[in-house]
Amino acid sequence: MQDRLYHDREEIVELFEAGAKLFVCGSRNVGDGAQETLIKIAKETKAKKEGKEVDDQKARDWFEGLRNERFATDVFA
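Above: the chain's sequence. Below: its structure in token form.
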């Protein structure tokens, strides 16, 4: 799933900017993979927009703001 998210990252960014929500159901690895991919996309997108490198912590802070509002998981062990 995370490979597809990254492949479609331009569309994912547009959808998130329009207020989209993402619900992930599957194993914990799938949920974690989606999270890490979204953080990677955020870093790249913000770096492009701001013209400078965005550190990992800023991207993670952005992601934490989405958790349970616009990004939710239903994962199993």
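The mean pLDDT is 89.
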